[in-house]
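To the wet lab folks,

You asked to see what we're planning to order before we commit. Fair enough. Below is the target structure as tokens, and below that is the sequence we designed to fit it. If anything looks off to you, flag it before the synthesis order goes out.
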């Protein structure tokens, strides 16, 4: 064409017309080539020779280049981009649903609480990242996709809270069993319970009312066990009194009771209880009984010692001067 134009065989208008026809032909060929690639990938997709993920990955990698090279127009470029976004969203939803299917299987098997919790947490983390990514691209909470993600997130959090709540209840029963079997002390159980209760509350697994209810239940158990401990010691004191001659052992037990009760009163006041509370009043009554019991034992021991010295004087084993000196 250039040669014909230079030789004057065609006019400049004819030359330009030929160039335009060549350009249009090349553009059509480019479009046909890209469409042929699309058709091939769609065929492979329909024949299950290629996954959705692989297809849309290819489309994502080639869409922009095809638009820049004139192989597709702007409307097709946008349509492809929207299809890629939608496919990405569908794949994400499928991933969450696949994990939930795994969770359902684990629930049916039983005893897989740790695995279930791990999968739930992955779902929550992935959805939160997806919401952050959507907002980064300018989508807000009025967007349909963001609203769907938020709904999915709330469902996962509710399900996770329920799983964690169930796990917490199982842990409580396990520790109570260990205490009953002598494998764990009451103190160890109470310490674990306080820490775990704080953890599940901070994680949003239990609400404020449940948190306080758990603490109140724990305090009630602590008080019952403490009362039982004091009562058991008092029972031991009664046995020693019946045996006779065990005043020093009795005194040691009374002193231990007094120390423990005073410590319990201090701990209760540190938690905010005052003299008007039932527990403080109960402890105070227990303390007074322990002190009265100690004083009676000491008085009995003292009277007994006086009687023994007086007997020694009467038997000539001790002089009056020695007795008065001791007295």
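Sequence we intend to order:
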């Amino acid at each position: 064409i250039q040669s014909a134009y230079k030789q004057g065989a065609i006019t400049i208008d004819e030359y330009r017309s030929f160039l335009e026809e060549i350009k249009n032909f090349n553009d059509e060929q480019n479009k046909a080539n890209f469409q042929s690639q699309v058709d091939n990938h769609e065929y492979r997709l329909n024949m299950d020779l290629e996954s959705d993920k692989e297809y849309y990955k290819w489309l994502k990698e080639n869409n922009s280049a095809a638009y820049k090279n004139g192989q597709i127009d702007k409307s097709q470029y946008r349509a492809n981009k929207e299809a890629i976004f939608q496919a990405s969203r569908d794949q994400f939803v499928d991933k969450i649903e696949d994990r939930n299917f795994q969770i359902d299987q684990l629930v049916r098997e039983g005893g897989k609480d740790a695995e279930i919790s791990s999968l739930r947490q992955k779902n929550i983390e992935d959805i939160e990242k997806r919401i952050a990514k959507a907002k980064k691209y300018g989508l807000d909470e009025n967007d349909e996709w963001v609203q769907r993600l938020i709904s999915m997130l709330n469902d996962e959090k509710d399900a996770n809270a329920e799983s964690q709540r169930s796990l917490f209840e199982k842990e409580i029963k396990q520790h109570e069993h260990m205490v009953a079997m002598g494998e764990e002390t009451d103190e160890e159980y109470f310490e674990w319970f306080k820490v775990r209760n704080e953890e599940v509350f901070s994680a949003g697994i239990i609400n404020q009312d449940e948190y306080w209810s758990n603490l109140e239940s724990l305090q009630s158990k602590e008080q019952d066990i403490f009362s039982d401990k004091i009562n058991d010691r008092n029972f031991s004191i009664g046995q020693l009194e019946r045996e006779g001659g065990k005043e020093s052992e009795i005194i040691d037990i009374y002193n231990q009771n007094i120390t423990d009760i005073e410590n319990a009163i201090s701990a209760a006041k540190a938690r905010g209880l005052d003299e008007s509370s039932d527990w403080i009043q109960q402890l105070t009554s227990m303390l007074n009984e322990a002190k009265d019991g100690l004083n009676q034992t000491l008085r009995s021991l003292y009277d007994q010692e006086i009687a023994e010295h007086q007997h020694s004087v009467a038997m000539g084993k001790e002089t009056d001067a020695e007795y008065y000196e001791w007295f």
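Structural context that might help your review: The chain has a mean pLDDT of 85. The first helix runs from residue 2 to 6.

Thanks,
Computational group
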